[in-house]
Design brief:
The chain is α+β, with helices and mostly antiparallel strands. It contains seven helices and 13 strands. β4 (104-110) and β5 form a beta hairpin. The longest helix has 21 residues, at 3-23. It binds D-MYO-inositol-1-phosphate and calcium ion.
Length: 274
């Protein structure tokens, strides 16, 4: 089955169906339509994007289990265990609803509801028309061109993404202070799936989320893209990342462009001085 072709069609349909919503009051806060399976408020754009993905897959005659940030786990067709589709229909919902041009759709295909079985993935920057894809064993691509992470190892030059969006920031901040002190260029752009792809293609040198808040739905596709690009992603303790694919399941991780900068970041997070 040509999963990349199917994921590409999902993305195109998401893009065309959300377009009319973006024209109306592009930078005004939008009403909440309830709470999604992942625990965050749902906006109309999230639901429209999810429907576009589901209907595209059903239009292909596929039977599958959808694991989505919005609707949760839903089974379709006669043999839903055949394929697991883990989706964050819109990653960066706050950005898209406020007119900040950094948001994505993220879709992963796996053989089981388990991160390490993801074998095809797409994360698409819907504003800039940049699509990251990966197939297990075949590398990662950005608009069909192979990507490689950066070789930079010097923290003072590195651009490092850190997500500190949490009410628990007082707990988290002490773990991250050493790293921030050694780094000149800290970023958080507001769509973690896309920021992970930025590590894969060398745009940034690392991305760290140790909040215990990020869902597997936001991470599944970018996980494969990172690995296939040859970058590194582990738990903050340096263990391989794996998790149940479920909108309620949360992850902490450090993703880095290369092993050397990864080791430096992990040891700073452990409180060691460089
Ligand atoms: C959010 C983004 C954001 C992160 C939040 C996520 P969503 O995803 O990835 O960068 O800080 O924790 O929930 O809600 O827009 O899909
Ligand atoms: Ca989302």
């Amino acid at each position: 089955m040509d999963w990349l072709q199917i994921l590409e069609e999902c993305k195109n349909n998401v893009k065309s169906r959300i377009a009319p919503l973006l024209k109306a009051s592009p930078n005004k806060p939008k009403p909440n339509l309830g709470i999604g399976a992942g625990g965050d408020p749902i906006k109309q754009v999230d639901l429209v994007a999810e429907k576009a993905i589901t209907e595209t897959l059903l239009g292909k005659g596929l039977s599958f289990t959808l694991i989505s940030e919005e609707s949760g786990i839903k089974r379709y067709g006669a043999n839903p265990k055949q394929h697991y589709i883990t989706a964050d229909p819109i990653d960066g919902t706050t950005n898209i609803t406020r007119g900040i041009p950094f948001y994505a759709t993220s879709i992963a295909v796996s053989t089981k509801p388990e991160l390490r079985t993801v074998h095809a993935a797409l994360v698409a920057d819907l504003f800039h028309n940049i699509t990251y894809t990966a197939v297990k064993g075949e590398g990662a691509k950005r608009n069909n061109q192979e990507v490689k992470p950066s070789e930079l190892v010097d923290l003072s030059e590195a651009v490092i993404g850190v997500d500190l969006n949490t009410y628990k920031v007082r707990e988290i901040a002490p773990q991250i202070t050493n790293l921030i002190e050694q780094t000149k260029h800290i970023r958080h752009l507001g769509a973690n799936a896309l920021e992970l792809c930025y590590v894969a293609d060398g745009t940034i040198d690392a991305f760290i989320d140790i909040r215990g808040k990020l869902r597997t739905t936001d991470t599944a596709a970018a996980w494969l893209i990172i690995k296939e690009a040859g970058a590194t992603i582990t738990t903050p303790e340096g263990k391989p990342l794996n998790a149940k694919l479920d909108p309620k399941e949360k992850l902490t991780f450090v993703a880095s462009a290369n092993r050397k900068i990864h080791r430096t970041i992990l040891s700073l997070l452990k409180g060691k001085q460089p």
